[in-house]
Amino acid sequence: MKRLVFPVVVVVAAILAFWYAACVPMNIKFALMTAERQGAVVSPEGMITRRDMSPFVLAAKNPAQWSDTWVQDKPRLPAPHQVVTELWAQTMQVAPTSKRSLVFHGWITLSATLLGFAIGSGLGILLAVGIVHSRAMDMSVMPWAIASQTIPILAIAPMIIVVLSSIGLQGLVPKAVISAYLSFFPVVVGMVKGLRSPSPMDLDLVKTWSATKAQTFWKLRLPASAPYLFASLKIGVASSLVGTIVGELPSGTGQGLGFRLLSGSYYGQTVQIWSALFATAILAACLVAIIGLMERGVLKRMGLG
Amino acid sequence: MTLVIAAFVLWAGLWYLNVQLANGRGGDTRAVGLAVPVIFGLTLVGMWELIVRGLELPMVILPAPSMIAARFASSIPTLWTDFVQTFVKGALSGFAIGSLAAFLVAILVDRSDFLRRGILPVGSFVAALPIVGTAPILVMWYGFDWQSKAAVVTIMVFFPMLVNITAGLQETTQMQRDQIKTWAASYWQGFWKLRLPAAMPFIFNGLKISSTLALIGAIVAEFFGSPIAGMGFRISTSVGQLALDMVWAEIVVAALAGSLFYGALALVERWVTFWHPSQR
Q1: Does B145 lie in the same domain as B14?
Q2: Residue B234 covered by a domain
Q3: B161 and B25 in one domain?
């Protein structure tokens, strides 16, 4: 365990150090401008002379202003502690029902994601069962299911939002449709692989016990597919979340983490964008981790883990 | 209404044909394997056309395939400029930069066991995150033109590639590495002649995953700001004008570009990794 943790900690620390260092050249011009206005002596003087200079040269010439680059209101690159403070302020210090709370926006995104993920993976499993049992369905649908993974499905998200709102569907459902669509195909492909994973030997064995098709399915194919199912559920839930976030970009309802990203970019609120980004990352990590835990539990009880 | 009934008759007829073909005597031949999915696809398009006409659906809900095809044919110059802006400038350059950077970092990581144990968990964690979300930040930094799209694509491609290349470079067995050591091979000789070829299946797996991500990244980044060309720009503005036939035409372009890119990678893979069991 220690062998594993120490290198990870070092790498994360290196990333943080690099981040703080990167803030200096990114934000130095604005820091120098404000410092000069407040009467500090910076080199070279005058905004216009500084305009076309390299930020690295400016940073090297003005070490006194480095600390100013980590505390700006609207920095080009906010420092890590600013993002953490903002995350804390927007989750713990405002009521969870307030429109400024990331918990509120996160819940909107999470509910659409979970609904879409449930629909998408449910339909995906059903289609996979059909594909495994019908040769015609396998030959017709499977090539399209594989080919559709090479297509940027996400591009149709804005259209789905508009089409569904023109027939009166708004809010949760259109986003859930997009996220269902995105989780559908990974689950189909993974589940077909899983249901086919029993070896010919196993299949012959249950045949000698004169098992019916249904018995073969419930007692051999379905249990054998569990590892494949969880692997594709992890991919599916991550892409479900991406689908919901992209679906929130054009929806204009003013809710959800995707909307926070967009409004932050409209108003130049960089700290807000970064905190929304980290909120999505935490949400994604939690969803994948929950499925990972379920996977570990189920596979252990099945004697596979 | 008759057209809708016709749609279901068409469905029943062609499905019957497919079942016959798939379960018939020639079911294992290559021709049938190709014909069945094509027939299925054509059935769907035919039903789509008949149902849209039969129910007289307005274009703002679902345009008929014939309308989309007409729109596609009449606006090829626009679609081409969008394709060049988004795919060639944005997606391809980002794809190249991201995979190259991942390759260089992977070699670095490969030389040190400590770095590998540190970077791999972080890399695979980041690869599972919704990286598209960085698009507004990168558009702010690099402006509206293709550079910001290439930056988004670079980041999206980098982590899956890094994880795959590093995993691939671990693929050789101790026996093989010892063997090449007895021939007094230097690190680089071993790298080029043994470990890189062995890593190729993993590298191509990463490239194929990244090819889809690249196009998605370039299109979604355009939703946050773009010059007046590009597939994402055209999709979002055409949705605003309710010109859904144009949106569908762009989606056809995206689908074609995505599957051709993937197909090209698969062809190169077959040529490079001809020795691998999955290619034989």
Answers
A1: no
A2: yes
A3: no
- Of residues B22, B219, B223, nearest to A152 (C-beta): B219
Instruction: Give the B window 220-239 contacts with A, CB below 8 Å.
Output: 220, 223-225, 231-232, 235-236, 239
ipTM score of complex: 0.80
Q: Which residues of A touch B32 (CB under 8 A)?
A: 139
Is A150 in contact with A238 (CB distance < 8 Å)? Answer: no
Residues B223-277 have pLDDT tens digits of 888 888 888 888 888 888 888 888 889 888 988 888 889 889 989 988 888 887 7
Domain A102-301 has CATH 1.10.3720.10: yes
pTM value? 0.84
Residues of A in contact with B15 (CB under 8 A): 136
- Which residues of chain B does A130 touch, with a Cβ-Cβ cutoff of 8 Å? none
Q: Of the candidates B57, B82, B99, which is a domain's last residue?
A: B57
pLDDT digits (tens, 9 = 90+) for B8-43: 888 888 888 888 877 777 667 777 778 888 888 888
Does B59 lie at the interface with A, CB-CB under 8 angstroms? no
